[in-house]
Structures are given as C-alpha cells and as structure tokens.
Amino acid sequence: MTTRLLTDAPNVVTVGAELFEQALAAQGVDVTPVDWRPPTMDAAVLATLASSGMANANQLAFDRLVAAEPMWVGIDTARDVVGIETGQFLHAGPPLTWERASGPMRGALIGAMLYEGMAATPDEAIAIAERGDIELAPCHSARAVGPMAGVVSPSMPMVRVHNDAFGNDAWCTLNEGLGKVLRYGAYADEVIERLTWMQDVLGPALADAIDHNGPLDLRSLIANALQMGDELHNRNRAATSLFVREFMPALLSTGRPTDQLAEIAAFINGNDHFFLNLVMPAAKAAADPCRDIEGSSMVVAMARNGTDFGIQLSGTGDAWFTAPAEVPDGLFLGDYSAEDANPDIGDSTITETAGVGGFAMAAAPAIVRFIGGEVADALAATQSMYGITIGEHPAFQIPILEFRGTPTGIDAVRIVRTGVVPFVNTGIAGKVAGTGQVGAGLVSPPMEVFVDAVTALADRLEEPSD
Amino acid sequence: MTTRLLTDAPNVVTVGAELFEQALAAQGVDVTPVDWRPPTMDAAVLATLASSGMANANQLAFDRLVAAEPMWVGIDTARDVVGIETGQFLHAGPPLTWERASGPMRGALIGAMLYEGMAATPDEAIAIAERGDIELAPCHSARAVGPMAGVVSPSMPMVRVHNDAFGNDAWCTLNEGLGKVLRYGAYADEVIERLTWMQDVLGPALADAIDHNGPLDLRSLIANALQMGDELHNRNRAATSLFVREFMPALLSTGRPTDQLAEIAAFINGNDHFFLNLVMPAAKAAADPCRDIEGSSMVVAMARNGTDFGIQLSGTGDAWFTAPAEVPDGLFLGDYSAEDANPDIGDSTITETAGVGGFAMAAAPAIVRFIGGEVADALAATQSMYGITIGEHPAFQIPILEFRGTPTGIDAVRIVRTGVVPFVNTGIAGKVAGTGQVGAGLVSPPMEVFVDAVTALADRLEEPSD
C-alpha cells in the first residue's frame, strides 16, 4: 500500500536533531526519533585508518581470538609465575597508585598485606602503603586477570590456562565465593582465613585433580554453558555446575580424605561464580595472541581499577587509554543502594572482550532477575553489539538467536563511528573499604577511551616506519 | 491509516473452509489461511460438561497440581513398595499383554527375567512369557512411572518421591544411562551387569546420601533447570548438573571408599538424562492428588506402552482411554532411520502432564539440535499449549517468555474443542527387541483418546448419582 504524500499524514523520522523533533511534536505530528549521534571524531582520521589495511589487520586479530583453545592445565603459586615478590601486588584495571585507589581497592590491598603477614592490623597495612612500601602493577601486565579489585599477592594459588592454539598462558586467582571477600574489598578475619584455606587445601587439591583429569577444555565448557542460560560474566551457574560434574570424578581420584573432598565440594557448590575465575583466564589467553597487530583497532583488554576505565588496542602496543570509571547501575543487595556503589572495578570485562559476558546477554534471559531490566533488553543488548564487533564467534552460539555466534572482537573504530559503547555486566563493590559486594548491574564504558585509542592508532600509522 | 474498502485490495482470512481459500487464491487474492478445525465432538456433550461445574472441578485439579511439593526422600526396593513379587512386572503405559507387546517392551521383559534369575537365556525367558507365567501391570496402577519400556522387577532400587503438600508418594527406577539399556529393550550381558551394579552399589549409596543430605527439593531444582535450557523430558542436562553439584557433598559424607564414589560420580556424569528418573516421579507425585475430582476433564496420566497410547482423566477414575500409538518423528542416531522406530513408548509423558517436557520447549531452544526443527518451533510449541491447559505454573517459569509460567494442567475438553493435541517430546526405541535407542523426536497423541475420555466424562455426569 502506498502512502499518499499530499493527503495522508506524514511519517517523520528524526535523527540527531532534537529541536526539529520537538517542533514537529508540538504541531501534533507523529515523530519517530532515532537514537543516533554523529561520529565522535574527525572523519579524516577514520579515512586514514580505513586506507591503511585496518580491515585486514582486524580480520587477523579476530581470527586469532576465535581460534583460541583455552585449556585449564594446572594451579601455580603467584610468586612462581607472575613475577611478584613480597610487597608487590597485581591489581585489576589500568595502572594505579595507592593515592588514587578507591575504597574496595585499598581494602583488598590491606587484606592482601594481612594475608601475606606483612601487617598485623589494617592500620599497619595502611601505614605501609602510605609510606610507599608496596609496589603495584596491573594484572594485565603480567599475563593475568583478576575479578573486581583483582589483587594478587605472592602466596596465592592461581589458575593456569594454556591456549593450545598459540602456546601462551594466562593466570587468574581462584574464586573466593560470595559475601565478605577480598575481591570486593573486604579484609575481616574470615576473609584472610578463607584465603589461607584456599592456599593450603583448595589449591593443592585442584592441582592434583587436574593432574588426574588431564587438561580441562574451557572452550567447550563455555560453549555448553551459553546453551544453558549463562552469559559467563554475571551468570556462571551452568558453567560452574558443568565444571563440578566433570571435575568431581577427578577430585575423587586424588585419594584425599573424603571429609576434605566434601569440604571442597561444598565450597565450590556454594558459589555460582566459581567458574568466573576460569572463564576470565580463558578469555585472557584468547586475547593475548591478538596483541601487536599493526593497524588493528580491535580491543585486546578492557579493564577497570575502581578509579579509571582503561582499554588497550591490538595496534597500539602496551598503551592504556583511560578515563574516569562510571558508577554501575543495577539491583542492590539488602539495604544497599546506588549511594553505596563504588565506580566500576575489575578485569572481568575480559569476558566481553572475548565475545561473552554482556555481549552474550541474549543467551541468559534469566539474568535480568539479578541485574535488573526486562528480557527484551537482554536480547537487544546482544543485537546491538553486532554493530561494534568484527565477527561472530564460531563456537559460542546463542540458541534463541537460531544459534547465531556471539558478537566477538570489539572494534574501537566501529564504536567511535556509531557512538555505541560495549555493553558490560558487572558486580558492584561497596565504595567504603571493607564493605564487600553491594549489588550487580550494568555499566557503560566512557566513550573518550575509544576516541583516544583510535586517535593514537591513526597517529602511529602516520608516523614514517623505518 | 484506514483501509479503503472499495479501492484497496481485500485482506482475506479463511478459517476451516479450504475450498473458499483456494478459489480466492486462484483469483490472485492474498489469503491468510488459519489452521483451525471444527470441534471433533458433539456440541451437546460439551454443553453438558460446561453446565456441570467442570470449570470449578478443573480449577481444583489445577490448584492441587501446582501446589505439589515433590521431595526425593529415599531409595526403596521395588518388591517392598510397589507390590510385585517374582514373576510380576510393572510396565509403561496403559494395560498390556505379552501377546500385544512391541519389540522393545518384550526385550525389556526378557532382560528383567534374566536380571531376576528367572531365566538363563533369552529363549527361556520368551518361553516363560509365552506360557503365561508372568503377570504384567501398568506402573501407573502402582503409583510408579517408568521411562520408555518402564519395566520394573522386584529387585530393582526405586527412587521414592514424597509430595509434602499432600502426603502421597511416587516411585521410579534409576536411570541406566545411554546406549544398550533395558528401558530401550536391550538385554545383552552388559545391560544385566549394569542393573546388578545399580542394585548392589548405586542404589545403596544414593540411599545413604539422601539420609545424609535430607530430602532433595525437586520443585526448586526443576524451576532452576527451566532457567538453564532444560525442558525436563528430552533435555535434563542442567537438572542433572545441578543435582550432581548439590548432591555430591552428601555422597562424600557417606564414608564409602573413594574409588566407589568416583565410579558413581562418573556414572551419573556420563548421562545427561539421569535426572529424568527424578522429574518423572516428581510429576507423578504431583498428578496423583488431582485424581478423582468429579467432573474434572484434566488429564492425570498420559502414557504409552509401545502399542497403545492411553490417558486417564481426573473425573473418570481408573479408566484408561487408549488408541494405537503413533511412531515418533525426529533425529536418528548413527545409521538408524524412521523405519527402525517403534511406536511411541514410555510413562515419561508424565512430564507434559505436569507442565514441563514438550510444554516447556520454549525454555530449551537448544533441544532442536537433538530432536530436529527450528528454534521458532520450540517457542511456538509452548505458545500453542496455553490453549489446551487450565493455567500457568506459578513456579515453573520460562525466562524468554518474560518469566511466564509453563502451560499446565492439560484439559481434554479444550483439546477436543480446538483440535490441538499435546506436544510430546520423546526418545525413540528400536522396534526390534534388543536394539536399544535409535533416536529422539516428537510425537502426537491420537485425538480419539481425548474424544473417548470426554465422552465418558459426560456420560458419568448424566448418570443419576445416588
């Protein structure tokens, strides 16, 4: 049926210019506003990139990302593998100093000093940090990742994930469970006792079990969990359950006393997020071989330290592009509210970087009961991410989208072109040191980090190469 | 925008009368055919039922069904609880004789005789059966259910489910795993050896673990699995994983040798359908208190014996309404094809009777890779079941349908009014005794069993009550 231009009412679609939309609406005209913003950077810069082989570079980066074969191969002690000694700590996100650290980051560092025996009280730990007697470095700089504060100290057991396709390793601490935990900035006695138990009992038992079991195929486990309602960042219930099911016979084969095995089984069973600390190093192990591809605008790290949000691109080496982290919005636990929330924190955005997490929300409609929103929002979130990614993951499929692969390989250029930023799921830490988790929800990365990164990438390409 | 009746083309919707649709289509008119068939029975019968308090009776039956609190409380030996002695066997579906039994049913009975030591060879077992020296009764008549052939013999360990809301119990055998198994009609040595191991090792260990664990809340577990991609009939991967996760600490607490525990963990882990034999008695325990409500047209049992498909209604006592079972269609294993398929078999349709299984297909889009079809078919299947059910289950919710409750409480009157029959998922047994499973797919119950049941219900209401 055709619209009769002169007799029928006009259908007006307005893009960008809100004044025009408002003027028409005031005259009673039906207006369909489209949420589109003009590109956030100079067209000449984007043209430079487009003419410099960026598409090929991005395809190469994407191909490496999806070819990853992350296997859980063992447990190591941090001091042996990530290059830290007493007084040195890794943390989530881009580089940070004690002075600029937020409450939960300081809380986690205090807890780590207590756990390492560097201090007997929180006040002593604070004094040590204020004297400058600790050294901090990002997990990402040591081929590691950590959820929330992401603090790693030398004695902690770490999951080792090997990428069979490229031969590289990645590390992550073991998940501590819920409630008062170090990663959310808590440092009460129970936190330190649990970390000690993880060091003495859990870590060695898991190491033995992996030896009995052989390497655990994380790519396959993640693919299965996506068919069972997980998005692998804020929802890891299926993945944790599949892991327990597959791993328990191996744990039983270690010959450890059954009461210890029962304690371990109960600990893992009590925490739907146990698998988060396996999917994160799997994603890190997949992303690292995509680094240092000249001209590629693919994001290889996206991480927050509770103060700043930072990204790294494949084509810009080890440079971090940062801006102040936003405060997440979502559902809060108990009596907590948005006022208690710390700005965005954690390396767990490595999941989105590798094509799961917020990018796979459509696979996990039940998650809206945990982070807020409607089921339709979850579907729309994934759909919108296809516009800022390089391709679709061949193994990570979403049944409800007729098994379409998850949107994978975040392209900073597509982000600045479209004005659409990555969709990020996250836990929410209390902003006061020692509080712990206060909720879970969604957060938007600041657009300027993508603009700065793309500008830097273009600048590198304009420099004459030797 | 309005349609101009005289100038624009007509939009024609045709219902029922295909000739009219074809005549218009031949004239180039756009026709939207609607798949509707006239009611399959006399309007006077339906009017009788409508005026006899049927709506209230059905509401009462539905309320009882969804109020069920099925708990796994223990393991019993069949002879102690379902009233069978040597030479007596329970079987799936409506009543059956050896003479009319299909290949897989005969195979399972042969296997059960070998397992019970009644016969040393399959030929001896067949001779015993042909002499009439065995007695058969439906599982449903003994407050039990069994998947596929559903054969229960006196020595088998059985899951006991207690409905806390109404005080009744239901029983089911333990799942044997995949491949050559008794329930699919296989009776090779490995089948009998596994049954013996289940009797000697698995059953007692699970019984101990339940004692240590306390009752296991199956309603909650089913509700969680629906949020994790299971529909609880042909897909029980999430439920089995959640079960292992919750149950393993209890199993470890039994103090049994770890090599035995490892064997049990590996057995359960090797079989995504382990939980089917827990959801089935949970559904049976929920359905039984809905029996014998005068005037109710709600289905309280729907079951197949490999020869006949049968149903029981709440308002028609113990009467079975049967018709020849259809052959399921779906995906076949290995070199098997539709030609190898036996007609529909098993009590597992108790899942659909209780609001899960085929009725919850929308919760399990990944299942189309197992039974065939498209994801849209899975959504449409659940949507169409709302038209033949009394209500929506308050605890069994489907995230992708914005947490709408599953269509629950099959109403035989709505079926005969609409011509829509229940949507049933099923495994497919080989038709030759001893073959085992050949595939999985979908099957339609024969409409006539619902017509006969509704007619019988109306007849009862017309009889003067004393």
Question: Quaternary state, please?
Answer: homodimer
> What is the CATH architecture descriptor of the largest domain in chain A?
Alpha-Beta Complex
Query: What's the structural domain tally of chain A?
Result: 3
Helices and strands of chain A: which structural class? alpha+beta
Describe the structure in your own words.
2 copies of one chain form a homodimer. The first copy, chain A, is of the alpha+beta class. Chain A has 3 domains: 1-36, no CATH class; 43-64 and 284-462, v583 domain like (v583 fold), CATH 3.90.1700; 73-282, Alpha-Beta Complex (Enterococcus faecalis V583 fold), CATH 3.90.1710. Chain A is built from 16 helices and 18 strands. The first copy, chain A, has helices at 18-26, 43-50, 54-67, 78-81, 103-115, 122-130, 189-213, 218-226, 237-252, 258-269, 276-287, 350-353, 368-371, 375-385, 412-418, 447-462, and strands spanning 12-15, 31-34, 70-77, 88-91, 135-138, 144-145, 157-163, 169-173, 216-217, 299-305, 308-313, 321-324, 329-332, 345-346, 389-398, 404-410, 424-429, 437-443. In chain A, the strands form 6 sheets. Chain A has a 5-stranded mixed β-sheet. A 4-stranded antiparallel β-sheet of chain A has the order 12-11-10-14. In chain A, a hairpin with a 2-residue loop joins strand 10 (299-305) and strand 11. In chain A, helix 5 (103-115) packs across helix 6 (122-130) and helix 5 packs across helix 7 (189-213). Chain A is globular and about 60 Å long. The N and C termini of chain A lie far apart (63 Å). The mean pLDDT of chain A is 91. Chains A and B meet through helix 9 and helix 10 of A and helix 9 and helix 10 of B.
